């Protein structure tokens, strides 16, 4: 790997700033000052130091975040704090959300810089189940509840869509709290499904993706890296 590229991938420096740091004598290679940006290095064995700090390539990361409200999943900075801003890791900006949650939705959010793994989780072909807990504005009881459960199981036609949703599972935890399991990821799907049932979602929380549940020890805003076993679930 070229030395300037290595610097840009292992430090906050851009490629142009890495070249400037080299010219300024801020970099050593195996203990010797070096200024040639095109120098090829062995990333496994060579020792590169920038201003006294040894640099190393960052491998792929797999993160579980308990997403709080008022946090968005966009890469660009907007009105709200970004999910990646909560991750205290080198080059956190390389992490991408695996699917998305609305800014007012809480719960399990996965982030990774492994694109193939992310695709396996999100691809409609794999029909990965996602479980949401919804707090509803209107109670669902008796015959109305049974009707709603049946409608969800058969598939709902959402406003503006040409095909119904895939069969899903609705389970009522209380008259105003429902657990919805879906295998798709349409735009605002859960909220639109309850709207199609004549209800409104006051708050929404994702509790699991596939066989991976949100760690109960993570408070909103906290995160941890996935274990090898959890990564292998997808």
Can you give a write-up of this model?
The chain is an alpha+beta fold. Helix content is 21%, strand content 27%. The protein contains six helices and 15 strands. It has helices at residues 3-10, 15-23, 115-122, 142-154, 189-196, 228-231, and strands spanning 27-29, 32-33, 48-50, 53-54, 62-67, 71-72, 81-82, 96-97, 105-112, 130-136, 169-174, 177-182, 201-209, 212-213, 223-225. Helix 1 (3-10) packs across helix 2. The mean pLDDT is 95.
What brief labels describe this structure?
4-stranded antiparallel sheet; 9-stranded mixed sheet; alpha+beta; single chain; about 230 residues; elongated; 6 helices
Largest sheet: 9 strands, mixed
Helix count equals 6
Q: What does the overall shape look like?
A: elongated
Mean pLDDT across residues: 95
Terminal CA distance? 31 Å
How many strand segments?
A: 15
Helical/strand content category: alpha+beta
Radius of gyration: 23 Å
Q: Which regions are unreliable across 5 or more consecutive residues at pLDDT < 50?
A: none
Strand content: 25-35%
* H-E order: HHEEEEEEEEEHEHEEHEEEH
| Approximate helicity band | 10-25%
Pfam family, one: S4
Domain RNA-binding S4: 1-63
Keywords: Isomerase, RNA-binding
Function: Responsible for synthesis of pseudouridine from uracil-516 in 16S ribosomal RNA.
Describe this structure in a few short sentences.
This protein is an alpha+beta fold and 234 residues long.
Secondary-structure map:
Blueprint: H1 3-10, H2 15-23, E1 27-29, E2 32-33, E3 48-50, E4 53-54, E5 62-67, E6 71-72, E7 81-82, E8 96-97, E9 105-112, H3 115-122, E10 130-136, H4 142-154, E11 169-174, E12 177-182, H5 189-196, E13 201-209, E14 212-213, E15 223-225, H6 228-231
Parallel strand pairs: 6-7, 9-13
Antiparallel strand pairs: 1-2, 1-3, 3-4, 5-9, 5-15, 8-9, 10-12, 10-13, 11-12, 13-14
Helix pairs in contact: 1-2
């Amino acid at each position: 790997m070229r030395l300037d590229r290595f610097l840009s991938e292992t430090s906050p420096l851009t490629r142009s700033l890495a070249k400037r740091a080299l010219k300024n004598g801020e970099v050593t290679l195996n203990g010797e000052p070096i200024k040639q940006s095109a120098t090829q290095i062995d990333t496994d064995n060579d020792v590169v130091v920038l201003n006294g700090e040894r640099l190393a390539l960052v491998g792929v990361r797999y993160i579980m975040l308990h997403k709080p409200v008022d946090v968005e999943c966009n890469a660009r900075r907007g009105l709200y704090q970004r999910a990646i801003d909560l991750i205290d890791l080198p080059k956190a900006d390389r992490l991408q959300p695996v699917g998305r949650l609305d800014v007012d939705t809480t719960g399990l959010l996965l982030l990774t810089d492994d694109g193939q793994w992310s695709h396996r989780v999100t691809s409609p072909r794999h029909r990965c189940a996602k479980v949401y807990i919804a707090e509803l504005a209107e109670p669902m009881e008796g015959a109305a509840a049974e009707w709603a459960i049946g409608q969800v199981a058969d598939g709902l036609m959402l406003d503006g869509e040409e095909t119904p949703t895939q069969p899903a599972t609705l389970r009522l935890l209380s008259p105003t709290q429902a657990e919805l399991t879906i295998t798709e990821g349409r735009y605002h799907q859960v909220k639109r499904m309850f709207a199609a049932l004549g209800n409104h979602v006051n708050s929404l929380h994702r509790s699991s993706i596939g066989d991976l549940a949100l760690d109960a020890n993570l408070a909103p805003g906290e995160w941890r890296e996935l274990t090898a076993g959890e990564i292998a679930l997808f």
